[in-house]
Design goal:
Elements (H helix, E strand, L loop, with lengths): L15 E7 L4 H17 L2 E6 L4 H7 L5 E4 L2 E5 L4 H8 L13
Parallel strand pairs: 1-2
Antiparallel strand pairs: 1-3, 3-4
Helix pairs in contact: 1-3
Pfam family, one: Glrx-like
Protein name: Glutaredoxin-like protein
Organism: Frankia torreyi
Length: about 100
């Protein structure tokens, strides 16, 4: 895991748009990591991973919901990665859970 902000992938030297908050021994985190890596590669965006237990502030806010996905610093979702919804968020479209939710 990368806690220093450099992240597993940052194509083109861009800063990470996706942050995956995880913890050691979390099987859902392993699944989320694979999905995030796939989407980030397909969309050409950077991502990073942070151990929620390494930062007391993150542990207080997100500790009971890992994995947590942040997009551009905003909470996008937790526990499961909805790949199509994540792609829409990266494209700047509305993050609504409702179908047909464009701007």
């Amino acid at each position: 895991m990368d806690d220093d902000g450099s992240g597993p992938a940052e194509p083109g030297g861009e800063s990470a748009r996706i942050t995956l908050l995880t913890r050691v021994g979390c099987h859902l985190c392993d699944t989320a990591r694979a999905a995030i890596a796939r989407v980030a590669e397909q969309e050409g965006v950077g991502w990073r991973e942070a151990d929620v237990d390494a930062d007391p502030r993150l542990a207080d806010e997100y500790g009971d919901r890992v994995p947590v996905i942040l997009v551009d610093g905003r909470e996008h979702g937790y526990w499961r990665v909805e790949e199509d919804r994540l792609r829409r968020a990266l494209a700047g479209r509305r993050w609504s859970l409702r179908s047909g939710g464009g701007r």
